[in-house]
């Protein structure tokens, strides 16, 4: 009996290891630029940290520029890699109709491009064999991101204008279980400096051991222009999905982004749009994300370069401590950017960063770069929580409560949540419950919860953020005097050079009245 159990245990362990290898280090290649300084060293470092076999670390001789021509991409990157996949048995091919070849089986699912590899392919006006232009603005574009173009390598397509539909879009299956020809999940470990990239790697690996805990900040834009409403729908859905698993959310759905001086603390997730460059509290020299944080801001050129630490959004977010981001190297059109609600939901399911990102993309051979460790699973540890052990810490208490009580009716859930937050003196949970009440229009209930939260929080910036939220609720209750008194009480005891002081001073100011247009004579 003991021998049988031992054999069963070993068989199960072997199967589990095989499955892990199919979706992890054994299924990953690391690609560096042999002509770029530090690229080989970073590739070796990443492979060692992730236990990726040495024969799956490969160097290519290509341009060190971020932008290359289509001819350079084909000759120096795509064709050498396609040959390598065949020669090394990373995929097997079979003949198909019309003298085409298709991938019959594949070992490699993930590709990590290392800093030094080109980022984007400029447009070409030359005739490209096998390409066809279509009608409309999308089908006439042939510039693209190197990552996105490489993801289509298994399709053996010569179509470079427009997009190639992504068969993995909105999937729920890990890439190792996906049937049919799937894209390569190409991500890049890149950023303004070598030290930033090394930190991205180590933070991701360290964070996934216990899970990514912290607060989410979601910034909508209330853009009602035709074709733009979808962005705010993504943001609203993200907030709902985070609440389902007990992640506290600060949600700003006003047209402006979070203002300068806004107290952003313990930020593990950030989703926002639609400003041209990093701004608000995220641009402050003192701001840092929590280790392992994922931060994304939608803008047409958010990742036009990854080398300038202050340009656009992607590079600055990484400079401020984010471990991963998504961005656009050229104009993508909003509907062809990552569906951030899908991306966030798949991450919460415990899937990898690479899987979640590609599940969120409707089109390939396009403009999105996926910057981060493709194997990073920020929430996988959440799936392995021991139910026999009581949770500790504000983040875990809230998450544990939300998961255990998610099936209860809303009124009962909120009542139990308030009791749990009060009993455990959980400031993050209490503040979040107040925000939920405010979004539901119950501003009176929100003020009571905000008061409870600020009495619980020990840190100044958390208290000030809740004061700002509570004051907003009082104003919406038409009790502006209460809001002013609250703000003045805080201003009396904080340093006048505190970045959030102007925000407190603005409380109670009447909104500016837009000038009326003059009538024509």
What is this structure's SSE topology?
Layout: H1 2-22, E1 28-33, H2 39-50, E2 57-60, E3 67-68, H3 70-87, E4 91-96, E5 100-106, E6 110-114, E7 120-121, H4 136-139, E8 144-145, H5 146-151, E9 164-165, E10 185-189, H6 194-210, E11 215-219, H7 229-244, E12 249-252, E13 267-273, E14 294-298, H8 314-319, E15 325-328, H9 340-348, H10 353-359, E16 363-364, E17 368-371, H11 394-405, H12 410-424, H13 427-439, H14 443-456, H15 460-476, H16 480-491, H17 501-506
Parallel strand pairs: 1-2, 1-6, 3-7, 6-10, 11-12, 11-13, 13-14
Antiparallel strand pairs: 4-5, 7-8, 9-16, 15-17
Helix pairs in contact: 2-6, 7-9, 9-10, 11-12, 12-13, 13-14, 14-15, 15-16
